[in-house]
Design a protein that fits this description.
four-stranded mixed beta sheet; 52% helix; alpha+beta
C-alpha cells in the first residue's frame, strides 16, 4: 500500500521498497515459528532508527526525519504487512507528538503513550494505573497525558504487568507513582483527547489496511497452488466469490484510508474535514477486517488456524486493531452527528465539502 501525495509517487514507492526490504529481512523468519506471539525486536528497531524511520514525522530539530504523514503511513502499512514487532505508530505518531507539543525532548528510543483524563499529574508527581497500554514492556519510556499535562516517565519508574491483545501483541497494565523533575513535565496541547483519538484511529486504519492486504495476498497464493478434485481451489466459483468479496473489502478500506492520510497530510489533524475523513477510514477498515479474515480462513481451511501458518498473524491483528481507538460504531456515530449538524445544508454538502 503506497499512499498518494502530489508529485511524490516515485519517492513514496521507493520508501515502501526500503521499508519492505528491512521488515522482510527481520520479520519473515519469525512468521513461521509456531508460537503465539512475536517478541519485540531490538535488532529491527536499531535498523529502523539507523534508516531514519522511527521518528519520520518528527522535525529534524527534534531529532527526527521531518517527513510527512504520507511517508509515515507508507512505513506503518509496510510494518503491518510484515507483522513487524515494533511500536512505530506509538513512538512517532503519539509519543513524539505529545512530547513536542509539551515542549519536552524526544528520546531516540522506542516509546509508547497513554491518555486518560483521570490520570493524576499533580505538581511534579504522577500517579496512574492504566490498562492495555501498547508495547509498554518494550518501551524505554512512556508518555502519559491528561487534559492539562504531559509527562515523560522512564520504564524504570513503572510497574508493568504484561498483558496481550487478541493477536498476542503487548497490551500491558502499568502502575506509576513517582515524582519527576520539572524538565519531564509540560503542558498538554489544546483538545488533546480529540487529537490523541484521531491519531490513534488513523494509525490503526493504516495498520488494518496493511494486514488485510497481506491476508488477501496469502489467500490468492493459497487458492492458486492448493489443488482439490484435480484442479486449483481458485477455479471453484465459491472460492472465487470469497476472494472477490475480500478484494472489494480491501479496496474500500484502502480508498478510505488513503483519503484520510491525504487530508491529514494537507490540512493536519486540527481540520474538521480531517476528523471526518479519519472517521470514515476507521469505520470502513473496521468493517472490512472481519470480512477479509472470515473469507481468508474459509479459503485456507483448517491450516489457516494453526500456529504453523502465517495467516493468523495478519487476520488476528486486523481484528484486534478494529476495536482500538474506537470501533466502527463509535466512528459511525461521529459521522452521524456531523450529518445532523449539516442537515439544514443537506447531506450531499457534507460529502462534497469533505472532498
Amino acid at each position: 500500500m503506497t499512499f498518494d501525495a502530489p508529485g511524490r509517487a516515485e519517492e513514496l514507492t521507493e520508501l515502501r521498497g526500503l521499508a519492505d526490504d528491512i521488515f522482510s529481512a527481520t520479520a519473515r523468519a519469525v512468521l513461521d515459528v509456531p508460537d503465539t506471539e512475536i517478541a519485540f525486536s531490538p535488532t529491527l528497531w536499531k535498523t529502523l532508527a539507523e534508516s531514519g524511520l522511527t521518528l519520520l514525522t518528527t522535525p529534524e530539530s527534534d531529532g527526527g526525519s521531518g517527513a510527512t504523514q504520507a511517508d509515515l503511513a507508507v512505513v506503518i502499512a509496510s510494518a503491518a504487512a510484515h507483522a513487524a514487532p515494533v511500536p512505530l505508530a506509538e513512538t512517532d505518531l503519539l509519543a513524539s507528538w505529545l512530547l513536542r507539543a509539551a515542549g519536552l525532548p524526544v528520546p531516540d528510543a522506542p516509546l509508547t503513550a497513554a491518555y486518560d483524563p483521570a490520570l493524576v499529574i499533580d505538581d511534579r508527581r504522577v500517579t496512574a494505573s492504566l490498562d492495555r497500554v501498547p508495547w509498554a514492556r518494550a518501551a524505554d519510556a512512556v508518555v502519559l497525558a491528561n487534559d492539562h499535562s504531559v509527562a515523560l516517565v522512564s520504564a524504570a519508574d513503572l510497574s508493568i504487568e504484561p498483558g496481550a491483545g487478541l493477536a498476542r501483541d503487548p497490551r500491558d497494565r502499568i502502575v506509576v507513582d513517582v515524582e519527576l523533575p520539572a524538565s519531564a513535565i509540560g503542558p498538554a496541547p489544546h483538545r488533546i483527547g480529540r487529537e490523541f483519538m484521531l491519531r490513534g484511529a488513523l494509525a490503526r486504519s493504516i495498520q488494518i489496511c496493511g494486514a488485510i492486504e497481506q491476508a488477501l495476498e496469502l489467500t490468492i497464493e493459497h487458492v492458486g497452488m492448493r489443488r482439490q478434485f484435480g484442479r486449483p481451489l481458485g477455479k471453484f466459483q465459491a472460492v472465487q466469490s470469497l476472494v472477490a468479496e475480500s478484494a472489494g473489502a480491501v479496496a474500500m478500506a484502502r480508498a478510505a484510508t488513503e483519503f484520510a492520510v491525504s487530508r491529514v497530510t494537507e490540512a493536519g489533524f486540527e481540520d474538521e474535514r480531517s476528523e471526518l475523513a479519519i472517521a470514515v477510514a476507521k469505520a470502513q477498515t473496521s468493517r472490512s477486517a472481519p470480512i477479509v479474515a472470515r473469507n481468508a480462513h474459509q479459503a485456507h481451511g483448517a491450516i489457516g488456524f494453526t500456529l504453523d501458518h502465517r495467516l493468523r498473524h495478519f487476520t488476528l491483528r486486523a481484528l484486534a486493531w478494529r476495536s482500538e481507538f474506537g470501533g466502527p460504531q463509535h466512528w459511525e456515530h461521529v459521522l452521524g452527528e456531523a450529518a445532523l449538524r449539516k442537515s439544514g445544508a443537506g447531506l450531499w454538502n457534507l460529502v462534497t465539502e469533505l472532498t
